[in-house]
Amino acid sequence: MARRLRVEADGGSRGNPGVAGYGALVRDVATGDLLVELAEPLGTASNNVAEYRGMLAGLTAVVAIDPAAEVEVAMDSKLVVEQMSGRWKIKHEDMRRLALQGRDLVGEIREAGGTVSFTWIPRGENGDADALSNDGMDGTSVARWHTDDEQTRDEGPSADAVETEAADGTAEATRLLLVVPGGDPTATVRQLRGLLADERPQLLTWGGPTADDTQPLADALDLVADPQDGPVLDRWHDLQGTGGLVVVVAGAEAVRAVLADVLDVPAARRDRLALAAGSVSAVQSWPGEAAVVAFTNRT
């Protein structure tokens, strides 16, 4: 009998659009056990975008836990539930892109033998996910895994900080910030400064960014870029579990390759991972090659 999992997801925006964040969790229906809790700040975004991002985070966690499960996604967003169920049309481009990502995740679960259904619930029944989304809107990242094969990862004190030392004294996480060149360098630097706080990272380049792509970031952050050649996934695997904070300036295809490797996305679907010029994505890994995507395509 297939395992039954329940995703509860929510998102919010203070201003709509305004300061946004999402929350999501996964429960084992048979035992009632809470398997994972997730929250992430989104910068400035609409309420609907935040709701979709919560749903995507929940389904991504399901793929990591048991993609062959019978999955119910419960949300108080009628829009997301009806659009993902195919009963409402999707007119807005942002919603269409996010819905496509959701359908890819649903397809991956179905290909593994699982099922996915979407259920609307009243806001009063979605309190746990709502609390997590408020953590996100408050600027806190949460990635707490309660499964047997995952270390518990708790929220950090700043917008995207993650505790790097496990409670039992095990090795720290490797935190990778992946920057796609282009866009507004000033905005990218501002975002990186918020993520780095007082930490001083390594600065690497993968996949062929030019000095013109990298030097404005290096100068603004007072760092020296270290160009690294060779296959991008080899470079990524070399970093996994080594600890510390690393900023990597890499072309969009190189960033997609890393994200797809963590999420186990087939190569044919990598182009569904939207990445804007100047965007930042984040990956965290632990010894033993456990890794999660903290966020993607933040501008």
- The CATH topology of the largest domain, please? Nucleotidyltransferase, domain 5
CATH superfamily of the largest domain: Ribonuclease H-like superfamily/Ribonuclease H
The count of DSSP E runs of length 2 or more, i.e. the number of strands, is 12
Any idea what the radius of gyration is? 18 Å
How much of the sequence lies in strands comes to 25-35%
Q: Which CATH class of the largest domain applies here?
A: Alpha Beta
Count of distinct structural domains: 2
Query: Helix count, per DSSP?
Result: 8
Backbone shape: globular
Strand order of the largest sheet: 5-4-1-2-3-6
* Percentage of residues assigned to helices: 25-40%
Largest sheet geometry: 6 strands, mixed
Secondary-structure class: alpha/beta
The run of helices and strands is EEEHEHHEHEEHEHEHEHEE
Report the end-to-end length measured between terminal Cα atoms.
43 Å
